[in-house]
Specification:
Four copies of one chain form a homotetramer.
Chain A (H helix, E strand, L loop, with lengths): L3 E5 L8 H17 L4 E6 L4 H4 L6 E3 L16 H6 L4 E4 L8 H14 L2 E6 L2 H8 L5 E4 L11 H4 L1 H14 L4 E5 L5 H9 L4 E4 L1 H4 L4 H17 L1
Parallel strand pairs in A: 1-2, 1-8, 2-3, 3-4, 4-5, 5-6, 6-7, 7-8
Chain lengths: ~230, ~230, ~230, ~230
């Protein structure tokens, strides 16, 4: 399995308009250059349907537990699929939902043929989510998000406990680590701790050169594969 | 001022993928054929950024009271603007928000250069929204939405009271009527009652031929203009 | 009509246990000493049913739009009435609810025989609430709550506009002013601006001698009556 | 350890006013007659502070993740304690909260010296809650609540899996079963499946003779102890 580099575009200014297209084009280049890792771009709902025509390994940042119908402004998993988007990120620390809604949305996403990456703040929350069998769980201590203090340095035990907790429930779920990861070295360290990928955001999206930052992260993660 | 025909695509199956493109193309044709009315397409957040390249007089069905930043899955009005979308629908009966959030989102949308259509269930709610000075208020008794029982027949007084209440606070706000409108005749009746436009959804989106239904509505509303 | 002094106990430490009983006993004394004003104590849901046996002119700080039934942890207006409580405060700036839920709860409270005081942040919000015909509307600019900067000094126009807006919709609704009121003089000034009462909280509840503070406010408001 | 019979009074009409006092008095009698079990009454926030003077082994149906302060209408765990209430029920199927808020409220409740019973809809949700170390977890499949179809008959595996999942994380957490339990026999069956108690509601609160129904349940559960 290839290690995963997931880039959450969030609602940064660089996530919209022309700049978002640049990020998507850069992602394509990085993915082409580094075949040993998988690069997932997690786009804002506002333009996921537009960016997917530029970069196809694209997730959306949220979906709602609704089917097709009279749900003004809500995002049905079935609609996400019809827009050609590959997967959905759910329950991010900045967008928490009830466990019950998470269960329903995961089931609807799976039925629609979408991949699912669900976020957890703690190993305990990760345990509950593992029971819902998403494809991936991204573990991010919220107190480190956006700080530049990498989880893989500051809270290595969160990663190791998270990985073992999730795997003890379902071995097939991939566990990603996130929060505060800014350098290739931080990403590498997360893999060494047992994570199968990383979820990053500000380090790419607030960078002057998002493409270059993605390149750096991909480069270090490739080293891990080649060891 | 041209009467307004606003079509809320909601999250109907026809609002996504290829079928959504067909609706947008049809909207363009109708708008070209009927210059005396204004046709606004209100797209789901999932594909508003994609449809706007086909039909430019396009609104999005929701936005959140956030600026640019770390807001995973939320829709900043500034991002809506950067995606080239013209306006935003807020506070729909199926997506109610707190008055305080409505105020904040309207202000952010205006600052971003977006038009705003805000929904109200009752003349009383319309009054409060009029104080926030959106461009348009769409008045829709929720008990009639999707029923096929047109507000303009079943509750004409809601329209007349709504119009007078809103206009007494701010004359420049356009008042649209909605809920249960299915025929051109229903739309015409709404205009006769003082509304400056109509908001429709299921009658177009659940139709086998959405373009034909929009055409019919536009045709009747044009008669009103030519009287 | 007697001017109203409403004391919101909130969730201050002095709002619970023995100290809450002291506040209720003091309220009784003040009410007995100052017959020209009406003193309403607005108790936390945790002990409203207990305090009402000490002071009967008592409101509760919130209720939910539910009837009797399987609603674990929710507060039906009918239950509030069965507990002997006189009225309910709704939609406080710290506990905002959807307009739709406010409408439903006000109707249920009225049907149960409860008085209703609804809060508004702005004259615009007050307008919408006036359409729902509560007994009182308490207008509180949220940016002044708890600051000690009295609305009656800092934003007198909010009071005057709020009063005229509400009265233009329904003359019988009483309008109270609140936020930042700490002295008898501030309260007096609110009455001079057209308010029919004041809503206070921290100045009483965070005082070492809540009874003395209520006494002071009652004293100044009584002067207004005797003018 | 004594098996637990927890009675959730919810917001049934019998949960308020005089009838609630009757239930509390009956609970006292049952508890006095059946020393081998523990009877917990879970009162509505509207009158928990009043009922605890009649029956002391009393929980409240909800609390909020707030400390003392300006939180109009919210229920601080510290205030629950000051009102003499013994414990708090959280995250009931009818009152779901975010995992993050559950974590915060459990911690605040523990710091205040309250016992905590947290509810879970599924064994998966129970797993996540076990990581937060409440005193008890009540497992209730929501689709059976109020149906009269007992979980201990219809979904015995939910109980057995729930018990083993929770115990594998923390052996000291007591696991209760609930939903649809109406007879003493149903309660007995839950104990046989490994539950350490039951959570009931409608069968007592909608009964003409709540005391008699509690007596019946206590009687059967006592048999289990005496085996």
């Amino acid at each position: 399995m290839k290690p995963i580099l997931a880039v959450n575009m969030k609602a940064y200014e660089s996530a919209f308009g022309e700049r978002a297209l640049d990020v998507a084009r850069s992602a394509r280049e990085v993915a082409n250059s580094y075949n040993d890792i998988r690069l997932i771009l997690v786009a804002n709902p506002l333009n996921a349907s537009r960016l997917v025509s530029v970069y196809e390994d694209l997730y959306i940042q949220h979906a709602d537990p609704v089917g097709f119908g009279a749900y003004t402004g809500f995002l049905p998993p079935g609609g996400v699929k019809l827009e050609g988007i590959r997967g959905v990120l759910l329950n991010h620390s900045e967008h928490k939902i009830l466990y019950r809604d998470l269960e329903k949305t995961i089931n609807m996403a799976r039925d629609a043929g979408l991949e699912v990456m669900a976020c957890a703040d703690t190993p305990g929350e990760a345990a509950s989510i593992a029971h819902l069998k998403p494809d991936m769980i991204a573990l991010e201590p919220p107190e480190l998000i956006g700080t530049g203090i990498p989880v893989s340095r500051a809270k290595p035990d969160v990663i190791t406990r998270g990985v073992s907790t999730v795997k003890s429930i379902d071995e097939e779920i991939l566990v990603l680590a996130g929060a505060g990861i800014t350098s290739g070295n931080d990403a590498l360290r997360a893999l060494e701790l047992g994570a199968q990928g990383v979820l990053v955001a500000s380090t790419v999206m607030k960078s002057r050169e998002p493409g270059k930052k993605m390149m750096e992260l991909a480069e270090w993660m490739t080293r891990w594969v080649k060891r």
